[in-house]
Amino acid sequence: MLKRTALYSVHRELGARMVEFGGWEMPVQYRGVIEEHLAVRHAAGLFDVSHMGEIEVQGRDALAFLQELTINDVARLANGQAQYTAMCYPDGGVVDDLLLYRFDAEHYLLCVNAANTEKDFAWIEQVLEDSQLSAVTCRNVSADFAQLALQGPGAALILSRLTDTDLSRIAGYHFYEGLVAQVPTLISRTGYTGEDGFELYSHPESAETLWNHLLAAGREDGLVPVGLGARDTLRLEMKYPLYGHELSPEISPLEAGLGWITRLEKSSFIGRQALLRQKEQGIARCLVGLRLTDAGVPRAGYPVYHGGEPIGIVTSGTLSPSLRQGIAIALVRSDVRRPGTLLEIGIRRRRVAAEIVKTPFVAR
Amino acid sequence: MEFPEDLKYTEEHEWVLVEDELVTVGITDFAQDSLGDVVFVELPEVGVKVEAGKAFGVVESVKAVSDIYSPVTGEVVEVNEELPETPEILNTSPYEDGWMVKIRLSDPGELDELLDAESYREFIEEL
């Protein structure tokens, strides 16, 4: 039985096409992926991302525990700040990527991928059990949260109509607990589209109120509901990794281009030894952005060739609604990574010309 | 959703317009609606022999790749050259501007296997 978010009936009323995603029945599109994608780039879009999981970590040892559990440096965070990070296995493979919110030194919230929530929580409990830390509690609080994402150049203006919170004081990767349409909301200036925007956490009972008020407040600015289809094309144009594609137990954060969040200088964290070794030896493969110079749509799993030789595989691909061209993220041999390098992608029986390009594919 | 009465249909969601031994083939309104935004179309070349039930082309939407199956056996005598250039025609006009190929039938008896509009409508209601 698939899980449904608090907004399920709202999606049906809006005529959304529903699909299975990570154990949830979610809207993939309302009017059309391309239209919704372009709305986010040029105006604003509202996403139901309540399927994402939330795990609360509290206690005197919470900071020490999270330093061991995650690869970024949690000590850099001030209260009210969020951090993009990941959890690794001892061999350097990725358990999940996540957003970590710091309320105070003894209170944190982790936002994890829907399909991984149970796995992540089990992993976190196991790590805690194996640690010497006693003053930590972890709770899977996913059922207590609905999450909406308001994304696009118009997001701040639209949200400002529904809240007294001074949004100009919430910088990127910061959050504030305020009221939106009278609903207690964690307002986080984060997102997965490459546009300015907010992720709004509220109690599921208030999700419908929040959703309807936001849509009404943004209608004149072109705000539309957006499904998971456009969420994927938007993140792909930014080359943001997606778990199960660019990140997995078989792909390390260094290979995935997440060296910038991998704080090897931290004295210890799970996976550090393996990642340190990988860095010293040099990584054998890495993620690059590809743009097709011929017509075609690259897809995950398609082989990538250089000089006729197989050198890697497409991890995500689509037709970019902004560029109207096939774009892909591919995991390739690291010696073939320079922008400008000409490659081929195997699409069915053809080999289609592509070029390694600098990313993001679309400039912000 | 439209199902023109003068067309025949397959369970793979192609439509067929029969004019003597020449048939025109495309995908149905239901098919284009299910696919969403069509962004790429791959069609066979003129002169290619196609076989009933075998794939002759590909339609891709943003999210999915779908094979297009030939409803009949025969030879491709004309293809819609506009489609690869402007694949979104399939979304806006699946039964007219979005036609895909014209095939010269080699076995007119195969046409009896196709569904009429009413049967096709019933078929997709069951899905």
Automatic annotation (TrEMBL), chain A:
Function: The glycine cleavage system catalyzes the degradation of glycine.
Protein name (record): Aminomethyltransferase
Annotated EC: 2.1.2.10
Subunit architecture: The glycine cleavage system is composed of four proteins: P, T, L and H.
GO MF: aminomethyltransferase activity
Organism: Geoalkalibacter halelectricus
Keywords: Aminotransferase, Transferase
Family matches, as NCBIfam families: gcvT, PRK00389.1
Family that this chain belongs to: Belongs to the GcvT family.
Residues annotated as domain Aminomethyltransferase C-terminal: 285-362
Keyword Cell membrane: no
Catalytic activity line of the entry: N(6)-[(R)-S(8)-aminomethyldihydrolipoyl]-L-lysyl-[protein] + (6S)-5,6,7,8-tetrahydrofolate = N(6)-[(R)-dihydrolipoyl]-L-lysyl-[protein] + (6R)-5,10-methylene-5,6,7,8-tetrahydrofolate + NH4(+)
Gene responsible for this protein: gcvT
Residue ranges of domain GCVT N-terminal in the record: 7-266
Automatic annotation (TrEMBL), chain B:
Domain spans labelled Lipoyl-binding: 22-104
UniProt-listed InterPro entries: 2-oxoA_DH_lipoyl-BS, Biotin_lipoyl, GCV_H, GCV_H/Fam206, GCV_H_sub, Single_hybrid_motif
Modified residues (N6-lipoyllysine): K63
Keyword DNA-binding annotated: no
Domain of life from the UniProt record: Bacteria
Assembly information from the UniProt record: The glycine cleavage system is composed of four proteins: P, T, L and H.
Protein role: The glycine cleavage system catalyzes the degradation of glycine. The H protein shuttles the methylamine group of glycine from the P protein to the T protein.
Protein name: Glycine cleavage system H protein
Species assigned in the record: Geoalkalibacter halelectricus
Species lineage: Bacteria, Pseudomonadati, Thermodesulfobacteriota, Desulfuromonadia, Desulfuromonadales
